[in-house]
Amino acid sequence: MDETELWQFVRIDEYKVPETGVERVRKGLAGLLSGFPKGRKKSTSDSPLDPKQDLLCLSEKRLERAVPSPDWKDAAERLQEWLRSWLETAKPDIPALFFIAPPHSGREELLLRWASEHDVALAEQPTAERILGGDISWLDSWPKAEPWLLPRLERCFLRSTEGLDLVRSFLARVLSGRMGRGIVGCDSWAWSFLAHAGPARTCSTITTQAFDAQRLKLLFARCIDADGGSASAFRQADNGAHLLRTDQDQDETDPGGAETFWRRLAAHARGNIGIAAAWWRRALRTLPEGDLKEDRSDAQGPRQETVWVTPWEDLQRPVLPEEAGETERFVLHALLLHGGLEAQRLTAILPAERAAVIQALAGLAEAQLVEQRAEQWRVTAWGYPAVRGALTSDDYLCDSF
Questions:
Q1: pLDDT for 117-150, tens place per residue?
Q2: Which domains does the chain have, with CATH numbers?
């Protein structure tokens, strides 16, 4: 596998979270002991900004240009190549593959684009009433064409006594081959729950490999190029280091500083491009004179616009509210297990009074840890690292991504 190829697909036990700074320091101790370095090279990329100059957040329009969506068509074609052998086998030993990925990683967008590009039949998810009633007529109306795609398995069960029968029946039929050849998409948290509960333990799984610092930076640069945005230089606000350039001149005046930022971003996001994009958006700033200030260091050269990037150490970190207790953690865990839920369904499956659940949602929303879209509550991409860390430290069942 080409390590510089953006879209890489692996079995989930091959998923490799980018190294953190602590791991890199530990691995570098041997080098430090064998000989002291001459000292850290001072950056030659001093920031042209006035230290007292206030920077402003970018407008939504500028943010859309500075952080465009990935090229899902390209990703879908890479997935098709990875699947080709399995798709072209007349009678595969594995009737169905399960595509597992963490929240906000673009799993649904990728799978739906793949299905659109290759005329793949889409299976509809069951209603909540069918789930709670164990209505297997949902399975009887399955697409006859192969391959088929079920994009969101996490929406096919509810964590309750009555809410697991239908997904158990589905998995049994899929694994027996009775449903034909297909791909099932599932959120990593739901998958951990289903594997823990039993029915998903023997399934064959794949995922998108985590994006390390190099591939993450390359992905962002290609996204901006493909979008045709005019923002062509992203420079760190405290020292002027070029973090990302989308023009033809990719030389960096302080490659070490840029590498450090991207390594920290990739590690914090655990290789998840959606989480990384949310934090990248939060870091982008512009001068008060206007969004994406024109920077013309060479009066005869082409016009270049500059976005200033907040240093990693200065980025705001989300935290759980001080008053957050068991109910808030139950809410967050349930939202992750189901890939989001309506408030009504959330109150039905949690061991808490409705008023307490609604109050918990309000507090978590104020802290920007959850948000509501089309009546569905979900954990935000920006808040996800903090939420995952809190639930992990409190020994909740978490994903392996």
A1: 999 999 999 999 999 999 999 999 899 999 999 9
A2: 55-66+211-314 (no CATH), 72-208 (3.40.50.300), 326-393 (1.10.10.10)
